Amino acid sequence: MKASQVIKTLSTALAFGLIGLSASTVANAEKKAQKVYIDENVFPEGIVAAPNGDKYVGGLENGKIYRIGKKTNKATAFAASSKLRNVVGLEVDPQNRRLFVCDVDKTTAKNPQVIVFSLRSQKQIASYQLGESGFCNDLTFDNKGNLFITDSLQKAIFKVAKKDLKTSQTLKPWYEGKQWPVKEGAFGGFTANGIEYINGNLYVAMYNIGDLWEISTTNKQQARKIKLSRSLSAPDGLELDKKGNLLVVEGGSGKLSTISLQKSTFGKVTTILENLDSPTTVALDQGKLWLPISQFDHLFGFNKADHDPKFFVNVYKLNP
User: Fold this and answer.
1) Secondary structure of residue 310 in the 3-state scheme
2) In the β-sheet with 169-170, what is the strand arrangement from edge to edge?
3) Share in percent of the chain as helix, strand, coil (round to 5)
4) Distance (Å, rounded) from C-alpha 278 to C-alpha 117?
5) What separation in angstroms does the CA of 76 have from each of 61, 79, 80, 312?
6) Alpha-carbon distance 272 to 234, whole Å?
7) 179-234 per-position pLDDT tens digit
8) Are the beta carbons of 84 and 115 closer than 8 angstroms?
9) 54 touches 66 (CB < 8 A)
């Protein structure tokens, strides 16, 4: 896919997520939230909650990373001297030692990569190259400490073994979703997006068609589509809650929903939050949901009004 096609696909897809949301309904949803401000010109996409309670947010537009301190709830620049391009998905290793960052060129003129930073020193310690004309999107760890990465345009999942996490390298696809459909129009070839690991399986959200796929990490990469009670609307970030359900951000309808995986072959989708303004990803920490508000409608020119100069993360308390 050519760079111009990628930009058109992404722009249209992101805009689709804003159709039907009036200013009043967005305002009503945001009244329920505590707001944690980040910075100007961020247009945030990815967020992750570290095991120690700190949160990390990445800017799609300004290529910066911010750390929100657990005690202060204030955002400060992380690895400020790094030269990232457009930051997408983020992940922290279970030992709380390293931050893994999907760094892309949104025009795809340059190849996507994952940059690894030390949380302590904030210095880069490794990088993984993902190949040509791709879009590194999201990351997750399995129970053995192996890292898995989605690439939405290459229709692939990449893997970095635990023993190789500190080694810079060029990756080859661990799994290729040849059966994942590519469509014309709004969502085009933007396939595998959010990814989460549960009990030997990877769960992957298909942004362009609203499906959820399960891929075994142990049984010869056996893959299947999970039957859902309803299709998802441009699903983006995934997060596992304490009950074993998947939280899914639906950018196409401004919703946050849960997927209850019943008998591992069927998922019941329940909306828990709606009327969100350009949601992308979600982090869960201490009974609270952290949702970046991307303002992508302004970034891609579909909303001509001035955007809020201060970008923020909405924080919601979960019901017991």
Assistant:
1) coil
2) 86-92, 98-104, 113-118, 124-129, 169-170
3) 10, 45, 45
4) 28
5) 17, 10, 9, 13
6) 16
7) 998 876 555 688 999 999 999 999 999 999 999 999 999 989 999 999 999 999 99
8) yes
9) no
Contact 313, 47 (CB under 8 A): yes
Q: Which of 13, 75, 26 is nearest to 276 (CA)?
A: 26
For the record, the structure tokens of 244 come out as: 């074993």
Question: Per residue in 134-177, pLDDT tens?
Answer: 999 999 999 999 999 999 999 999 999 999 999 999 999 999 99
Instruction: Give this prediction's pTM.
Output: 0.91
Is the distance from CB of 180 to CB of 192 less than 8 angstroms? Answer: yes
Q: Which residues pair with 312 in a beta bridge?
A: 37
Which residue type does 64 have? K
Residue with tokens 């030992």: 95
Contacts of 115 (CB under 8 A, 6+ apart): 82, 84, 100, 101, 103, 124, 126, 127
Query: For residue 27, how many other CB atoms are within 10 A of its CB?
Result: 11
Rounded Cα–Cα distance for residues 61 and 82 (Å): 15
In CATH terms, the fold of domain 3-315 is: Neuraminidase (2.120.10)
Domain edges within the chain? 3-315
Q: What is the pLDDT of residue 18?
A: 36
Q: Between vectors from CA 297 to CA 291 and to CA 302, what angle results, nearest 5°? A: 165
Q: Which residues contact 305 (CB under 8 A, 6 or more apart)?
A: 298
Query: Of 243, 145, 259, 146, whose CA–CA distance to 194 is shortest?
Result: 259
Structure tokens at 137: 């999107």
CA dihedral 157, 158, 160, 166 (to 10 degrees): -130
